[in-house]
Amino acid sequence: MRKRSKSREYALQMLYQVDVSRAESGPALQDFWAYHTVPEEVKTFAEQLVQGTLSHRQEIDQLITSHASNWDLNRMAVVDRNILRMGTYELLYVEEVPPKVCLNEAVELAKRFGDEESSKFVNGILDTIHKQHARRVTPAP
Hints:
About 70% of the residues lie in helices and about 0% in strands. The protein has 7 helices and no strands. The chain is globular and about 40 Å long.
């Protein structure tokens, strides 16, 4: 598995843990890394995804809710909700990752960790967010 894909998998696991336990992210990350030894590059990108997703969570949740017709965010499967959060963060704020890669990686996570319909659900919502919302960051000169 590629390093960034592994980072996304770890980030999803940490976001899931924080969401379910309602824990603070700092201790949750420390606990997670105590049981996972990974290259620094994998850890750095995973932490960027977790911290970025959590720091923009309110805005991200509003976007997801506005594009998830007839779905209440709290009633979504925890895995799907966190894949959507992380995918939305990556689409809007991680400039070095092309949107197509963000979408493909989120769909792959949904296939791997979600149920039968998760990948279609995640793809539909993230594709709409991608088409309707430009990235919030300005590219470096």
